[in-house]
Give the backbone structure.
Amino acid sequence: MEKVLYRPARLDDIPGAVEIHRVARDEMLARNNLGIPHHDAAEQEVGFTHVLHTGIFRVAEVDGRLAAVCHAVVRDGIWFLSSYWVLPELQRQGIGGPLLRSVWAEGEKRGARVFCVWASVDPTAMANYMKLGMLPGTQLLKFSGESTRLRLPDSPTGYEVRPLDPATGAAIDREVRATPRLMDHDYWATRPALHGSVVLRSGKPCGYYYTSTGGNVSPAAWLDPTDGDAVLTLACREAVERGGTASLHFAGYNHQAAGFALGAGFAFTGYSHFLTTERFGKLEQYVTSGPLLF
C-alpha cells in the first residue's frame, strides 16, 4: 500500500465522500445483519457540504483515490462526530485512526470541551470511540408509525403554531442543546423538504419542531417538560399530514418522548448508541435531527 495522504476536504471531494459513506455503511449493516436504508446521495451531498463549510472535514487518500472520510461539527464547545468511514477493503490497516485523531485534535484547537458521537452497533467502531474517551451515554431510540395505526392525541388547547425563524430555534436550543447552533437552523430553513414551526403558549415560544416530507420529526425541542406532550403532538400530527407516517429519534433518557410514542401506538423500530465524554444540555427534552448534526 502506498503512503496515505491526509488532507482537508475540498468541495470536489463531496461526491466521493458520500459514496465512501454509502459503501462502508452498507457493508457494516450487512455484516451485522441489519437492514440497509434508502440512500439519497443528492441530499447527503448537501448535508456534507454544510459540514464542510461550518465544521471540520478531512479525508485520506490511498494510491490517489479517496479511501476514508471523517468530519465533525463544533458548536460552542460541543464536538459531534458526524461521519467516519473507511472503505471496507482498506479497514484495519491503520488508515482511519490517524484521520479520526486529527479531526479530534482540530476540535480541541477550536475550543471543544465535550466530544460525542452517534455510533452504530458495530463493536469495532464503538471500541475505537470508547478508547478516545467517548463512553456510553444512552441509546438513541427510533419509533415509527403509519397514520392508520397511530392514536395521536387531539391538538392541545392553549397553544399556537407559527413558522419558525432560525433565531427563535437557536434561542430554545441554547437551553436545551447547550448551544444555539444558529448556523444549523439557517441550514434547515433552506431545505425544501423541511418545515419548521415554533410552538407558542400564552404568546411565548415554548418549543419548536421540524417535519420532513417523509414524515420525520427532526429535530424538536421544548423548554419545559409540561409542554413536551403538546410539542410532540403537534409535531407528529403535522408529520402525518405531510408524509402519512411519523418517526421520532431521541435519547433513551427522554422518557417523556418514549411514553408519548408508546401511548400513541408507535412501533419501536431500531436503536443506536450515543457515546460522549460527558452529559450536556437537556436531551430529555429533545428529539434529534439525525446523525449528521444531532
